[in-house]
Amino acid sequence: MTAGSGFTFTDAENHDVPVGVATVMVPEETGADARVSVTLSPTPAPSPSTGELRWSCTPAAARELAAALVRAAEEAENASAEGPVTVRADELRRGDVRDGERPMTVDGARTDGSTAHITWKSVEGRTWTQSYDVNTAITLRRRLPGTR
């Protein structure tokens, strides 16, 4: 399991409930089958009236939790059981995910003679374009089938 994000919510009885989000890395489970773990510690008691687990938070905290879940889901999907693969810059395709501490996804790629122009997208949604010699080796965390 990788480290995740932590939040504090309030249960039905107004007690703070720490919530953690992490990606569970199991070699047999990759891509859409990978697991995202949400933990409550301590586990809240069910509401006496409904028998359901209930907790609440501010809209800002809910958005932060949703963003953490999206990041964890992307991390789980981007994990590859085969490990990283290295390709030439001119072989990058939209959807390929660069290996590293901060994953970046290829948003677009084009080649102009001996230069490959790669548009990257971060998990935060920022995009930028970098130019590489077509022979530059780029290590990918995940390789998607398909065309540019």
Structure characterization notes:
The chain has 148 residues and is mainly beta. Helices cover 14% and strands 41% of the residues. It is built from 1 helix and 10 strands, in the order ββββαββββββ. It has one helix at residues 59-78; strands at 5-11, 16-24, 35-40, 55-56, 85-88, 97-98, 104-112, 115-122, 127-133, 137-142. The chain has a 6-stranded antiparallel β-sheet, with no helix packed on it. Strands 3-2-1-4 form a 4-stranded antiparallel β-sheet, with helices on one face. The two termini are 33 Å apart.
Helices, strands, pairings?
Blueprint: E1 5-11, E2 16-24, E3 35-40, E4 55-56, H1 59-78, E5 85-88, E6 97-98, E7 104-112, E8 115-122, E9 127-133, E10 137-142
Mean pLDDT: 75
Task: Please tally the helical runs, counting DSSP H or I stretches of 4 or more residues.
Answer: 1
Alpha carbon gap, first and last residue: 33 Å
Major sheet: arrangement of strands: 5-10-6-7-8-9
Fraction of residues in H or I helices: 10-25%
User: What is the beta-strand fraction?
Assistant: 35-45%
Number of strands: 10
Give helix and strand order, one letter per element, not per position. EEEEHEEEEEE
The residue ranges in which pLDDT falls below 50 over 5 or more consecutive positions are: none
| Rounded radius of gyration (Å) | 20 Å
Query: Biggest β-sheet: count, sense, barrel?
Result: 6 strands, antiparallel
SS-based class: mainly beta
Instruction: Indicate the overall shape.
Output: elongated
